[in-house]
Design a protein that fits this description.
Blueprint: H1 2-20, H2 23-43, H3 47-59
């Protein structure tokens, strides 16, 4: 009985690792990280980041910040 539960857990772990390391999941995570980074850079209200990116915001894709 213990052997079957251990093999079931091992199988579940292998499926989880295979899914996590699959190319579509990695591509989705990478794209999400890039989008989050760009969103943070362009729309940050933190004064230091806002001041550094101010002119870039106005000259890129007509993104306003005011």
């Amino acid at each position: 009985m213990k052997t079957s539960s251990i093999s079931t857990l091992g199988s579940l772990k292998q499926r989880t690792v295979r899914l996590t390391l699959s190319l579509p999941v990695q591509a989705t995570l990478y794209t999400s990280l890039c989008v989050l980074t760009l969103w943070t850079i362009y729309f940050s209200t933190y004064p230091a980041a806002h001041n550094q990116m101010h002119s870039l915001r106005h000259h890129t894709l007509m993104v306003g910040c005011h």
